[in-house]
Each structure stands twice: as C-alpha cells, then as structure tokens.
Amino acid sequence: MDTIRGFRYKLSYWMSARDVYDSIQLMVTIAFALGITPFLVRKNSEGVLSMEQSGYGFVNAISRWLLLAYCYTHVNFHDESLIGYFMINHISQVSTRAHDIGGIIAAVFTFIMPLLQRKDLRKSVDTMVQVDKKLESLRSPVNFNTVKGQLILVITLVVAYDSIIITTWLVCLSKMDVNASWQLNFILVYELLVISVTICMFCLMTRTVQRRMTCLHKVLKNLAHQWDSRSLKAVNQKQRSLQCLDSFSMYTIVTKDPAEIIQESMEIHHLICEAAATANKYFTYQLLTIISIAFLIIVFDAYYVLETLLGKSKRESKFKTVEFVTFFSCQMILYLIAIISIVEGSNRAIKKSEKTGGIVHSLMNKTKSAEVKEKLQQFSMQLMHLKINFTAAGLFNIDRTLYFTISGALTTYLIILLQFTSNSPNNGYGNGYPCCENYNNITNHTL
User: Fold this and answer.
1) Coil, strand, or helix at residue 447?
2) pLDDT one-digit tens code per residue, 290-349
3) From CA 447, how far away is CA 435, in angstroms rounded?
4) % of the chain at pLDDT higher than 70
5) SS3 (DSSP) at 210
6) Deepest in the core among 11, 72, 395, 404, taking most CB within 10 A?
7) Three state DSSP letters for 392-436
8) What is the longest distance spanned by two Cα atoms in the chain?
9) What does each C-alpha distance from 376 to 160, 372, 430 come to in angstroms?
10) Which of helix, strand or coil describes residue 26?
C-alpha cells in the first residue's frame, strides 16, 4: 500500500504544475532534444523555474542541421528519391528536386532561424507570466494542472500517430522491396518528428493565448453579472470583500472599483496581444516553410495516387498498387493534418479574441457611471487597433480562408499534372528501377 501511495503521490506531483514554465517544461525539453530550440526550463539561482538558453542547445541545433544537409547532399549526389523507386518522368523529377530544395530551406528555417530569433520566444513566454500574475490578482487564474495534463495527452497522441505513420511507411517499403539508404530514411523520419514538434509548439502558444483570453472574458462577464444583480450598489468602496457569483464558483475581487478592473483588463489584453505578436514573429518563417512544403507534397502525392488508381484499369502487373497507394496516401494525410492543425490552432485564438469586443460593448450598455463608460470606450478603441493575427512571414493570414486557397490551388495543379501525363507519349514507367521495368514488361505482354 505504501508503494502504491508513493507512486500515486509521485504521479500527481509530476502531473501538477505551478506556473507557465512548469506547464510547458515537457514540450520545451522535447524541442530541445530535437534541436528545435536552445532553451531549457530549469531552476535559477533563486530556485524559481525559468527558460534558460544552453550552449549545448546551439551545438545540438547546428549539428542536426549539418546532418540533414549531409543526408540531402548524399541523396542528390546518388539521384535517390522515394518516387524514383517506382517511376521516373519529368513530373517525378520536378517533385524530387522541389522536395529536396524545400527540405534544405526547411532545415535552415527550423534549426537556424530559431537560434537567431530565440529572444522572441522567451519574450513571449515572459509576457504570459505577467498576464498570469494580473489575472491572479483579479481572481481569474489559469489552471496550470489542466494545461500540463492536456499537453501530455497531445504529446502522447502525436507520438502514437507518428509511430503508426512511420511503421506503415517502413512496412509498405519493405513489401515493395524498396531498399532505401539510411540517409533517405533519416530524412523521412526526422522531418516528420521535427514538423510534428514544431506544430505542437505553435499550437501550444495559440492555445496559451486562447486560454488567457478566456480568463479575461471571465473577469468582464463577472463584472457584468454583478451589475445585473445590482450587487455593486450594496458594496461600499471602503468595505473589501469577495462575492460568490454563480454555481461554478467564479469570483471577482471587489477591492477595486469597476474602472480599475477595466483598466487592468485593458493592460491584460494589451499584454496578450503583445505575446501573440511576438510568438508569431518567432514561428512565422517556420510556418511558411511547413505550409509550403506540405502543399507541394500534397499536390504530388495526390497526383501519384490518382495517376496510379486511374491507370489501374489499363495495366495489371506485379507493381504493388495497394502498398504504393497506402504509402503516399499516408504521407498526404499526414501533411493535410499538419496544415489543419496550424490553421485551427490559429483560428481558435483569433475567434476567441474577437469575442472581447461584444463583451465590452455589452458592459458599455449596462453601466451608469460616466467614468466606467469612458474606460470602456478606451477599451473599445484599443480593440480596434490591437488585434490578434497570425501570418506566414506576412504573405498570407493563417485562418480558415487558407483552406479555400489551398483547395483551389490543389485542384488546379492536379488537373494540369494529370493532363500533362495523359498527353505525354510515355508516362515514365519504363525508365525506372527494376520494379518499374517489370511493371512495363508485364504491361506490354498483356497488351
């Protein structure tokens, strides 16, 4: 029993979190191990958790980038690519070169740019610490235990999903008798891990913004609840007390008058917007790279799958269509999920921030105090000029409008590629590796 109790105590202690640094420690540690960030969350000389940069983090990030550069150089020097094991035509060669160039650029933006913009990440987290202190003073604190629990759940799901994808890839390649070099396998697996963790970090920051906005809204709604119940009239400014507001035990501190509460809410909103802008500055090039590469891979993988399925009725061979389609479909679905995760994480934070205006104007309609109404008007003006927005290097906004843009471009390029293939005298299956030669020979024999 003592052993079980000790284990439960250690588990509860490990699952608990006291502040924002404690809640994101696991995510930062994983990113540090993969070379994505040079920071670690550890205790300083005063025994307080903080984000500290490590010299090993710089060496780790640069070494990972050099290793990826070597792998890309090797596969280019040997003209090796995954699609090259199945078909060699103009489209497959273009897709291979585009992926290699994109991969090298992605390595730079994933490992080098975070080192140059490392101060933005720390500034964003430090700003959130200030927000948390102000929210706590207004009796609307963040539940860091919930934050850490959700983070552990997300990381567990990502690890499980990545493991399933990697296992599916390796099984499909094995069944298709593809013996890729370790350099190509390393690129395939490591890119997946780095992209997954980078997206998790970005979604963690957007979720952080969304959660603070929710706490701010709770403060403003509690104030509106007080006005609706006319409880403020019975409270003397000299009498300091806490009042229970509803069955969910939400409390608003009444040691300050409403004007002071609104002023602090304005400061909190400003800090949240500043933290979001700083986080976007840190992730902007990484997001641009991930979305661009994901789009390219989705376009060409969809082309490979459609071209194979549409041509299946005309060709029967030992070409293992099921494994081929499964492999590239898994890769395509993976990057679709990557884009959806980025867009939805950003969109939720933006939509949550947009609700602040409605709450402020609702308070403005209810207040009878000229001083409070003036503060609310100032808050309304601030909301007009300070908006949360996430962009990819300023080229396009990361919200749900991106779905329509990608869908239109994807459809256009797929039609062009399929028409190009249908008009080509040789679809490219007879110029490849042994499996492609068998495919062509059996097709000719059938015809």
Assistant:
1) coil
2) 998 899 889 888 888 888 877 643 444 445 778 788 888 888 898 999 999 999 999 999
3) 18
4) 80
5) helix
6) 72
7) CCCCCECCCHHHHHHHHHHHHHHHHHHHHHHHCCCCCHHHCCHHH
8) 97
9) 48, 6, 72
10) helix
Residue 33 CB partners (closer than 8 Å, separation 6+): 60
Alpha helices in 386-400 (DSSP H): none
Low-confidence winner among 21-30, 104-113, 244-253 (lowest mean pLDDT): 244-253
Cβ of 95: how many Cβ atoms within 10 Å? 23
Q: At residue 63, does pLDDT exceed 80?
A: yes
Number of C-beta neighbours around residue 64 at 10 A? 18
Which tokens in the block code for residue 68?
């990826």
The helix (H) or strand (E) run that includes residue 52 is: strand 49-53
Say how far apart CA 315 and CA 313 lie, in whole Å. Answer: 6
Q: Please, is 156 exposed, middle or buried when counting C-beta atoms within 10 Å of its C-beta (0-12, 13-18, 19+)?
A: exposed
d(CA 237, CA 376) in angstroms, rounded, equals 20
Instruction: Enter the tokens of residue 314.
Output: 């005309």
CB atoms near residue 177 (< 10 Å): 13
Angle CA(85)–CA(65)–CA(31) in degrees, nearest 5?
Answer: 105
CB 103 within 8 A of CB 191: yes
The tens digit of pLDDT for each residue in 355-372 reads 999 999 888 888 888 888
228 token code pair: 């609706």
Say if residue 252's pLDDT is above 90. no
- Exposure class string for 75-90: b at 16+ Cβ within 10 A, else e: beeeeebbbbbbbbbe
Q: Which amino acid is at 237?
A: Q
For residue range 156-191, what is the model confidence (pLDDT) as tens digits? 999 998 898 888 888 887 877 778 888 888 888 888
From the number of C-beta atoms within 10 Å of its C-beta (0-12, 13-18, 19+), residue 433 rates as middle
Q: How far, CA to CA in Å, does 340 sit from each of 124, 410, 435?
A: 24, 15, 35
Neighbours of 151 (CB within 10 A): 20
Choice among 80-84, 153-157, 259-263 with the minimum mean pLDDT: 80-84
Mean local confidence (pLDDT), 411-422 = 82
Strand-strand pairing, 39-43 and 49-53: antiparallel
Instruction: Select from 367, 306, 368 the least CA-distant residue to 332.
Output: 306
Pick the more confident residue, 240 or 399: 399
**Cα-atom radius of gyration of the chain, to the nearest Å?**
27
Intra-chain end-to-end CA distance of the chain, in Å = 75
